[in-house]
Design goal:
The protein is mainly α and 176 residues long. Helices cover 78% and strands 0% of the residues. The chain has one domain.
Length: 176
């Protein structure tokens, strides 16, 4: 059990990426099949948050010296902000779209700054996911309505998010 809590960054990031992908597939299937997970949705949200935070924290080591130190420290900051926003977002009364707009900007930056670290297809997926997130969360932050979420682009945004944030770093870690 101790090894689980003190594993190295690579192993923790890989496990987090697998968990992230699985939970997103569960969310996707639930959305398509209109499954109401009830209170279990909160558990899924908690594990989604933990996996995403671990992926973000692992990016510091994955990217290494390819980005400046302030950018690397920014991953820690955005991981903390996403954790708080995601867990507070379980309560529908709190608008966390501003934090997720910032997070989308970080995803865009991830795609732009990982040349040579993450394969291009996954980088481009991250860039698209970041752009979708900036437009979707940004519009929700400004107007209260996410202009991408309930359109066919919402599906594309979801897939690019999973690919760029989950699959890309996972495969990059597998190569190291």
């Amino acid at each position: 059990m101790k090894k689980f809590f003190v594993q190295d960054v690579k192993e923790g990031s890989q496990q987090a990426a697998y968990l992230f992908i699985v939970i997103n597939v569960v969310f996707f299937v639930g959305g398509v099949a209109e499954i109401d997970y009830g209170n279990f949705d909160n558990v899924l949200q908690l594990f989604w948050t933990i996996s995403l935070v671990q992926i973000l924290l692992g990016l510091k080591d994955l990217q290494g010296d390819t980005v400046p130190e302030d950018w690397r420290q920014g991953y820690t900051m955005i991981a903390a902000a996403v954790a708080v926003a995601s867990l507070l977002g379980i309560n529908e009364d709190i608008n966390t779209s501003g934090i997720f707009t910032l997070f989308a900007f970080v995803i865009l930056g991830l795609g732009v700054t990982t040349e040579g670290v993450i394969d291009n297809i996954w980088r481009y997926a991250a860039i698209l996911a970041g752009l979708f997130g900036i437009v979707g969360s940004g519009s929700e932050f400004i107007t209260g309505t996410n202009i991408i979420a309930d359109t066919p682009l919402g599906f594309v945004a979801f897939l690019t998010f999973i690919a760029g944030v989950g699959v890309g770093p996972l495969l990059a870690w597998n190569k190291r």
